[in-house]
C-alpha cells in the first residue's frame, strides 16, 4: 500500500511540474509518454480504491501532504483531490496546455494529425495525436448531432444515462450502503443545477436502458425508489419530458407509473372550473398545467394501462356524484376525453 | 512573386470565416461543405507561404489577418472534423509558432497558439456535462468517443429503416435524412468511428426518390477509398462503385495495373487477384458495373490487341463473372443478354456456354458452327466495308464478335485440343477459328495470309509427329523454325498463332513426352522464342484449369504440361 501512496504522491508532483514548472521545457516524447502512463496508473488506482474508505482516506491525506510541500516551491499549485483522479490524464493535459513554458515540440506531438494507421508502430502512440483525436471526436459529434433531433432523449443524455447505470451498478455491486449510493446520486444531481431539464432526460434514459442483467434491474429499481423520494425531480420529469417518453417509462416500470399517476391526479385535484370561461384551470401551482396538457398525461397513462386508468377515473367520478355534465367533476371530464 | 498570396483571395476567406462564425448552423455547414475543397487548396497555399517566409514577425507584417483567419477556422467543427483540413490548419499554426521567439510579436503569437489549442481541447459546450461526468467518473475523451459512437449507431439505425413511399414525392419519409446525413458525413469519411455510418449510407437500397446520396459524399468516399483511408466491406465497396463512376474506373484500372505488372504469375494467382478485387461479384450484382468494366476492357483491348496477358485477364475475369452469375441466378432470375448488349446475339449463348457443359462428342459440331458463323460474319462485314470505303460499323461488329471470343477463349483452347487430337480430319474450320482469334481482321492483321501459314505449319507439325523413330526430319523442322521466326504484317508481334499450334501439338498429340520435348526444344531453341513459348504454355494452362479439358486424360495433360514448362525453364536458364 505504501508503494501505491508513494506513486500517487509522485504523480501529484508530476502534475504540478507539468502545470507550473519550467522543467517541461526539457520534456521530450519519452517524458510525455511516461507522464501519461503515470496519470493512467492513477486512474486505475482511483477505480480500484474509490469505494474503499480506508485507502481513500490515506490517499487523500497523502495528496494533501504532497500539496502542502509543493506549494512551497510552486505557489500557484492547487491540490489534486482523490476524486479528480479518474481523469488524471485530462488533468495532465490541461496542466500542460496552460503552462506557458510548454515547448512547441510537445504540443506538436499532442496535436499530431497523422493517420492512426501510421502511428501503429509508434512507441508513443497513446500520446501522439491525443488532442487531435479529442478535437476530432468533439467536432464529429457537433457535425452529426443536429441530425439526431428526432430522438426524444438525444445521444448525450442516452450515453449519460447509460453511464449513470454503470455507476449505480458499481456502487450497488460493491456493497455500498443505500445511504452512500443515494448520496452519490444527490451529488450528481447537485452538479446539474440549472440544467434540471437535461438531468430529467438522463434519468429517463437510464430507466429505459434495456434490462439485460440482474444488476441493471437492481440499479433501475434503486433509481425508481430514489425518484419517489425526490418529488421535485419527478415533477420536473413529468413537466419537461415528452409524453411519449413518459408513456414508455410508464409501460416499463410499474413504480414509475404509480408515481406518475399520483402526481397527475394531484395536479387534477388542484383544478378549478371557471364558469365564465368554461374551462378548467389551476389556481396555486407554478408552473400551471392546462386541462389540455393534463388530459394528454392521462391519455399517456391510459395507453400504458387502459383498465387501471379507466377504473380509477370512474371511481373518482362516482365519488363526485357521477354526473354526466361537464364542468362538475374534473374526473368525469377527463374520462369523457379519454373515452371519446 | 509566387510567395505572395492573393490579397483578394485572403479577404474572401476572411469574410467567409467571419460569416460562418462559431455557430454550427445548417447554413454554416452547407457553406463549409461547398467550400471545403477550395479551402483546403487555400490552406495549402498559406502553408507554403508560411514555410517560405523566414520568421513569424515577417508573416504577421505581410498578413496581419492570418491569425484571425486561422483562429476562427478552429471553431468551425465541419473543418476540424475533416482529417485533411484539421491537419493543414494545425500545420499552419505550427508554422506561425517560433521555437525561439525573438520579438514581442513572436512571443505573443506563441501564447495565442497555445491558448487556442488549449481551448479547442478542453472547452465543453454543455455546462452540465463536466459536472455530470465528474459525478459519474467519466473522463472527457472517453465521454466524447462514446457519444460519437452513440450518434453513429442512432443515425445508422434511422437511415437503415426501409422506406415504403416508393415514388411518392409528397409523403415525408425517413429518406429525407439520407441526403442530409450523407452531406454531414463528407468530412468524416476517413474517420474509423464514422465508418459504420458511411458504409450504411452507401448500402442503403434506392427505394425512394429522396434517398439520393450527396455527390460531395460520393467523391469524398471515392478518394478516401482509393487512398486506402477508408476501408469498406465488400457490399459497401460494391455500392460505392454502383454510385460513383470514377471510383469504379479506378478499381478496374488498379486491377489492370496489378495484373499487368505481375506478368508471368500463375493462372491461380491471376484468378486470385481478380477475385480479390471483388469486381466480378460486383459485375454480377449490377449490370451497369459490368457494362462499365467491359467498356474499359474493350478500349484496353483495342490498344493492346495482341497482348496475351490482357486477353488472359479478360478471359479469366469473364469466367469469374460467369461463375458469380451462376450463383446469383440460382437466387433470382437475371438475363445474361442484358449484360452483353453489343455482342452479336446469335453467338452469345453458344459462346457463353462452357465446353465443360457439353459432351465432348458435341464439340466438333459446336466449334464448326462457331467457326462458320464467325467466318460468315467477317465476310459480310468485310464485303460491306469494301463497298463503303469509310465505314467503321462493319468493323465494329467484327470487333464485338472477336471481343466475345476473347472473353470466352476456352473455346479457342477446345478448338486447339480437338484439332491436334483428331489429326488431319476436317481441320479447316478449327484452323480458321484459331487464326481469327490471333488475327481478327484481314486488312490490319492479314488473316488470309496467316491462315495459309497456319495450314503450312500444321502440316509440318503433323509430319514431324508421325515421322518414324530416329532423328526428326530436318526439312520439316527447318520450315517450322522459319515460319515461327518470321511474322509478316506485324513484325513486332510474336508469332502466337504458330507458337500455339506448336504448343498444342506438344501437349495434346498422342506421342511420347520425349518426342514432344524434342520438337519443342528444337523449334523454340532455334527461333529463340523461349519466353513467348512459356507465355503461350501459361495461357493454355490457364484455360485447362478452367475445366474445359475432358476429365479422362486431364491428369496426363497436366503432367505433360508441367514437364514442358520445366523444359522451357531450363532452356531459359541455359
Q: What descriptors fit this protein?
A:
heterodimer, A: 340 residues, mainly alpha, Serine Threonine Protein Phosphatase 5, Tetratricopeptide repeat, 3 domains, two-stranded antiparallel ribbon, 16 helices, 67% helix, B: 574 residues, elongated, FANCC (chain B), Fanconi anemia group C protein (chain B), FANCF_C_sf (chain A), FANCF (chain A)
Give an account of the 3D structure.
Chain A: InterPro entries: FANCF, FANCF_C_sf. The complex is a heterodimer of chains A (340) and B (574). By secondary structure, chain A is mostly helical. Chain A has 16 helices and two strands. In chain A, strands 1-2 form a two-stranded antiparallel ribbon. In chain A, helix 1 packs across helix 2. Chain A starts with a helix and ends with a helix. Chain B has helices at 7-20, 26-52, 56-62, 66-73, 77-81, 83-96, 104-122, 128-136, 140-160, 176-184, 195-203, 215-226, 234-243, 245-261, 267-276, 279-285, 287-303, 308-329, 345-352, 360-387, 393-407, 410-421, 428-438, 447-466, 474-485, 496-508, 513-527, 530-548, 554-573. The chains are: A mainly alpha (340), B mainly alpha (574). At the A-B interface, helix 2, helix 4, helix 5, helix 6 and helix 7 of A face helix 5, helix 6, helix 7, helix 8 and helix 9 of B.
Amino acid at each position: 500500500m505504501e508503494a501505491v501512496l508513494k506513486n500517487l504522491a509522485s504523480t501529484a508532483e508530476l502534475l504540478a511540474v507539468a502545470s507550473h514548472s519550467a522543467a517541461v521545457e526539457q520534456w521530450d516524447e519519452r517524458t510525455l509518454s511516461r507522464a501519461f502512463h503515470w496519470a493512467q496508473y492513477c486512474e486505475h488506482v482511483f477505480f480500484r480504491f474509490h469505494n474503499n474508505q480506508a485507502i481513500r482516506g490515506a490517499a487523500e491525506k497523502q495528496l494533501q501532504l504532497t500539496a502542502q510541500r509543493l506549494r512551497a516551491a510552486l505557489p500557484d499549485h492547487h491540490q489534486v483531490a482523490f476524486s479528480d483522479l479518474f481523469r488524471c490524464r485530462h488533468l495532465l493535459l490541461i496542466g500542460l496546455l496552460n503552462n506557458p513554458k510548454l515547448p512547441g515540440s510537445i504540443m506538436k506531438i499532442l496535436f499530431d494529425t497523422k493517420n492512426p494507421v501510421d502511428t501503429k508502430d509508434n512507441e508513443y502512440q497513446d500520446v501522439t495525436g491525443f488532442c487531435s483525436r479529442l478535437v476530432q471526436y468533439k467536432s464529429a459529434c457537433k457535425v452529426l448531432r443536429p441530425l439526431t433531433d428526432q430522438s426524444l432523449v438525444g445521444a448525450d443524455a442516452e450515453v449519460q444515462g447509460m453511464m449513470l447505470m454503470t455507476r449505480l451498478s458499481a456502487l450497488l455491486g460493491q456493497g455500498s450502503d443505500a445511504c452512500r449510493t443515494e448520496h452519490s446520486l444527490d451529488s450528481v444531481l447537485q452538479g446539474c443545477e440549472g440544467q434540471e431539464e437535461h438531468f430529467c432526460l438522463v434519468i429517463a434514459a437510464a430507466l429505459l436502458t434495456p434490462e439485460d442483467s440482474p444488476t441493471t434491474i437492481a440499479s433501475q429499481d434503486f433509481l425508481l425508489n430514489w425518484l419517489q423520494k425526490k418529488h421535485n425531480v419527478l415533477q420536473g420529469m413529468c413537466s419537461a419530458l415528452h409524453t411519449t417518453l413518459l408513456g414508455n417509462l410508464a409501460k416499463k416500470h410499474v413504480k414509475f407509473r404509480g408515481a406518475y399517476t399520483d402526481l397527475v391526479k394531484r395536479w387534477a385535484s388542484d383544478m378549478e372550473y371557471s364558469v365564465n370561461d368554461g374551462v378548467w384551470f389551476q389556481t396555486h401551482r407554478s408552473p400551471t398545467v392546462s386541462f389540455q396538457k393534463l388530459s394528454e398525461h392521462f391519455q399517456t397513462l391510459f395507453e400504458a394501462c387502459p383498465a387501471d386508468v379507466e377504473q380509477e377515473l370512474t371511481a373518482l367520478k362516482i365519488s363526485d356524484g357521477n354526473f354526466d355534465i361537464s364542468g362538475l367533476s374534473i374526473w368525469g371530464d377527463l374520462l369523457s376525453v379519454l373515452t371519446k | 512573386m509566387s510567395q505572395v498570396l492573393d490579397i483578394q483571395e485572403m479577404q474572401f476567406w476572411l469574410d467567409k470565416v467571419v460569416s460562418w462564425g462559431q455557430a454550427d448552423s445548417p447554413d454554416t455547414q452547407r457553406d463549409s461543405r461547398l467550400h471545403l475543397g477550395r479551402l483546403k487548396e487555400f490552406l495549402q497555399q498559406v502553408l507554403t507561404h508560411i514555410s517560405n517566409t523566414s520568421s513569424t514577425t515577417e508573416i504577421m507584417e505581410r498578413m496581419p489577418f492570418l491569425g484571425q483567419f486561422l483562429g476562427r477556422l478552429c471553431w468551425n467543427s465541419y473543418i476540424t472534423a475533416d482529417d485533411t483540413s484539421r491537419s493543414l490548419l494545425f500545420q499552419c499554426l505550427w508554422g506561425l509558432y517560433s521555437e525561439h521567439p525573438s520579438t514581442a510579436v513572436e512571443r505573443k503569437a506563441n501564447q495565442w497558439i497555445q491558448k487556442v489549442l488549449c481551448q479547442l481541447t478542453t472547452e465543453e459546450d454543455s455546462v452540465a456535462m463536466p459536472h455530470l461526468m465528474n459525478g459519474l467518473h467519466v473522463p472527457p475523451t472517453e465521454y466524447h468517443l462514446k457519444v460519437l459512437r452513440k450518434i453513429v449507431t442512432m443515425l445508422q439505425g434511422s437511415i437503415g429503416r426501409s422506406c415504403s413511399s416508393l415514388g411518392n414525392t409528397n409523403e415525408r419519409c425517413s429518406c429525407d435524412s439520407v441526403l442530409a446525413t450523407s452531406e454531414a458525413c463528407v468530412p468524416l469519411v476517413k474517420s474509423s468511428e464514422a465508418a459504420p455510418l458511411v458504409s450504411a449510407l452507401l448500402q442503403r437500397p434506392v427505394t425512394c426518390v429522396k434517398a439520393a446520396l450527396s455527390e460531395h459524399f460520393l467523391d469524398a468516399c471515392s478518394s478516401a477509398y482509393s487512398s486506402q483511408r477508408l476501408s469498406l466491406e465488400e457490399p459497401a465497396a460494391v455500392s460505392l462503385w454502383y454510385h460513383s463512376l470514377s471510383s469504379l474506373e479506378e478499381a478496374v484500372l488498379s486491377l489492370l495495373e496489378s495484373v499487368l505488372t505481375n506478368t508471368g504469375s500463375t493462372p491461380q494467382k491471376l484468378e486470385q487477384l481478380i477475385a480479390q478485387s471483388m469486381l466480378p461479384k460486383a459485375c454480377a450484382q449490377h449490370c451497369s458495373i459490368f457494362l462499365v468494366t467491359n467498356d474499359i476492357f474493350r478500349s484496353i483491348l483495342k490498344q493492346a490487341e495482341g497482348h496475351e496477358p490482357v486477353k488472359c485477364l479478360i478471359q479469366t475475369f469473364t469466367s469469374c463473372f460467369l461463375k458469380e452469375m451462376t450463383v446469383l441466378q440460382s437466387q433470382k432470375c437475371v438475363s445474361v443478354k442484358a449484360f452483353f448488349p453489343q455482342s452479336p446475339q446469335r453467338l452469345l449463348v453458344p459462346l457463353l456456354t462452357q465446353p465443360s457443359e457439353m459432351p465432348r462428342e458435341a464439340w466438333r459440331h459446336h466449334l464448326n458452327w462457331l467457326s462458320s458463323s464467325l467466318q460468315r460474319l467477317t465476310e459480310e462485314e468485310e464485303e460491306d466495308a469494301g463497298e463503303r470505303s469509310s465505314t467503321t460499323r462493319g468493323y465494329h461488329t467484327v470487333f464485338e464478335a472477336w471481343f466475345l471470343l476473347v472473353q470466352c477463349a476456352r473455346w479457342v483452347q477446345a478448338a486447339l485440343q480437338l484439332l491436334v487430337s483428331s489429326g488431319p480430319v476436317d481441320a479447316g474450320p478449327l484452323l480458321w477459328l484459331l487464326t481469327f482469334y490471333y488475327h481478327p481482321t484481314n486488312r490490319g492483321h492479314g488473316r488470309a495470309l496467316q491462315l495459309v501459314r497456319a495450314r503450312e505449319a500444321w502440316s509440318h507439325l503433323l509430319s514431324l509427329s508421325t515421322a518414324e523413330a530416329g532423328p526428326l526430319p530436318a526439312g520439316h523442322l527447318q520450315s517450322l523454325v522459319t515460319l515461327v521466326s518470321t511474322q509478316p504484317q506485324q513484325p513486332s508481334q510474336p508469332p502466337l498463332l504458330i507458337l500455339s499450334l506448336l504448343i498444342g501439338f506438344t501437349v495434346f498429340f498422342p506421342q511420347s513426352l520425349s518426342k514432344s520435348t524434342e520438337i519443342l526444344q528444337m523449334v523454340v531453341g532455334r527461333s529463340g522464342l523461349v519466353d513467348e513459348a512459356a507465355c503461350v504454355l501459361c495461357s493454355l494452362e490457364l484455360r485447362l484449369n478452367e475445366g474445359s479439358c475432358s476429365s479422362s486424360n486431364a491428369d496426363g495433360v497436366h503432367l505433360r504440361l508441367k514437364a514442358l514448362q520445366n523444359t522451357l525453364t531450363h532452356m531459359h536458364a541455359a
